[in-house]
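Deliverable D5.2: sample structural annotation.
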Amino acid sequence: MNESGRPLRVAMIGNGATVHALVRGAAIAALGHRVRLVTLGPVLPHSGLEVRTRPIPRNPIAGVRAFASFMRDLREFEPDILHVHYAGGRLGSLALASGLRPLVVTVMGGDVQPEQYMGRATYFDHRATKRLLAEADVILACSESLRKDIGNYGAWGSKTETVRWGIETERFARNPARGAALRAALAIPRGPVVLSPRILQPLYNIHLIVEAMPAVLARNPDATLLVSRYREDPAYAERLRLRAEQLGIARSIHFMDRVDNAMMPDLMSMTNVVVSVPFSDGMPVTLFESLASETPIVVGRLSAYEELVRDGEEVLMADLDAPSIAGAVSRLLEDETLAARLRAQGLARVRGAASLPDEARRVESYYRRALAAPRGTSALLPRVLDAVSLGFKRG
């Protein structure tokens, strides 16, 4: 094998408690490269890549130890590429402090969309984001819309590429038998299932879905709303439960514990309509999973979504209010012709535009481009400040 095609050693940094870095790392490893994820805290079940983690530090002494072991796990791996998933946070600052290059940064959405911070970001969070984007040899954005948000931090369009990452579409092929088995295991009653699979936090407007359900139930009285408790905000979750009681629909709402990523195809297979209506987003995996599983989805009218799907063709789009969401869900439950069109066209769209193996090959080409380009070294003083700033990070 010539030098341009040799296997690479890719060190990834990302949150192991979410699927993104794990799934993407495994996709890069499937191309024949050696991948190591270096992280902090718990890690979901995984395969296809190495993982090194340690507890999230809770005091200065633990922080120093975590920093030292983190750097050791990176440097002893002797990576060709350092790839960070999420432009910010403690993990991003650790990546900067390492000084390893070439540096590839995948922007996730919440890192560059200020409205998602909801007032929680500090000066040090914004500094880490800008530093990562400035230091990156390649920036990967999951939508053209997200590239505009990146532009608010600096003029880095020449080194930014749009990569949706996507999913393994075949894994999400609809399987009614497996869907029925999961439904029985979750003790979901008969009738159509409306699924809210996003994080149970205010950003995702789950309260609007709850507010929409009385109108949905008036026309489909045996429907059930499934709400994922993944990374729930306890106060927000309690607010939703109280509102469901007030609306008299508590019996029709099931708050579901987190479903393992391996079970997501089965969850989609038991669902009639998915609803995903955050007020800000990048390009969510939920959209890809719904399309691949032929599960009609209602989404908000966000510019990022409109790059991939069309209202009434692959998805139904709704305004961010309860009546609009209720109308879209009811249409999909009652108009089989419409639902069938969305299933067929959505499946074709995701297969053509969001195939994880295809996107991984594109990312591989950007790795090799970064390796071939001349590059300097990271200055020491900013890296020292990166390390010091770890004590002021929110995540």
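Annotation notes: The chain has a mean pLDDT of 91. The longest strand covers residues 9-13.
The annotation will be released with the project's public dataset once the embargo ends.
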